[in-house]
Amino acid sequence: MKVYGIQLQSEWGNKDGSFRKVDSLLKEYKIEKNSLLILPEMFATGFCLDPNKTLLSEPQKTENYLSNLSRDKECWVIAGMTQPSEQKGKAYNCAVTFTPDGKKVLCTHKIHTIPILGEDKVHLKGSTVENIEVGSSIINTFICYDLRFPEVFRTAIRKNASTFVVIACWPASRIKHWLTLLQARAIENQSYVIGVNAVGKDPNLACGGRSLIVDPNGNIIADGGEDETIIEGEIDREIIESCRKKFPVLNDIRNDIL
Q: Which among 11, 166, 182, 211 counts the fewest CB atoms within 10 Å?
């Protein structure tokens, strides 16, 4: 299955502006039918922690855009956004998945909200790990800070995950951690990892880009650099199976150690 990651600088707090930015990047780009298109964490607003901006007209506004995008490109879409919660003034930082016919089929919540940036005061923590079948891959999506917690990736492996998507607004100041952890998650889980990060500066962060596609052996097969771009690569189920057969490390996971 072909995968594409859109590395962009969101228009701060301006959803329509961010939608136009995505459309502009895709204007001359041919997206293969039934492929997977991925957008960063909170792509419509940037990493904005003001619910008055992020929750305005949500979830309908961003979901309608993503639904139309998936239908127009006839592909799967995974993207980051915020959604209202049951608690007034608080939201969920989410990853939503749409089918090629525009249907939303999954919404997962960021499991680890980052206290050092004050996110825990605005976004509620998720508590479940959910997979979805896309083509021949079982995909699980995590969001930014979740990358630092390998135990949630192993939970997904126990649910037969074979590919991980990590969407982020990862800061440039810690970009070496991003690169190393994406490769580590791929190697230790013998899975593809697609990390799609934002770029550019906003009032809260300077995001570092370097979106990657990493194969199950830890090889980087696409690197987005530091500018707005689209990365692409192929998820090959045979490579996953070959890697796991040649060196069956996942068979030796101990579930009895706490």
A: 11
Provide the CATH number for the domain around residue 220.
3.60.110.10
**Residue 176 to residues 1, 27, 182, 208, 258, Cα–Cα distance (Å):** 28, 31, 10, 10, 30
Domain annotation covers residue 257: no
pLDDT tens track, the chain, 258 positions: 999 999 999 999 999 999 999 999 999 899 999 999 999 999 999 999 998 889 989 999 999 999 999 999 999 999 999 999 999 889 999 999 999 999 999 999 999 999 999 999 999 999 999 999 998 899 999 999 999 999 999 999 999 999 999 999 999 999 999 999 999 999 999 999 999 999 999 988 999 999 999 999 999 999 999 999 999 999 999 999 999 999 999 999 998 886
- Does 22 fall in a domain? yes
Residue 90 inside a domain? The answer is yes
Catalytic residue among 21, 94, 110, 243: 110
Domain count, the chain: 1
Catalytic residue among 11, 21, 41, 48: 41
pTM, entire model: 0.97
User: Catalytic residue at 41?
Assistant: yes
User: Quick check: is 122 in a domain?
Assistant: yes
* Structural domain span for residue 164: 2-252
Q: Could you confirm whether 207 is annotated as catalytic?
A: no
Active-site residue, from 75, 144, 207, 243 = 144
Asked whether the bond before 59 is cis by omega within 30 degrees of 0, the reply is yes
Helix (H, G, I), strand (E, B) or coil at 196: strand
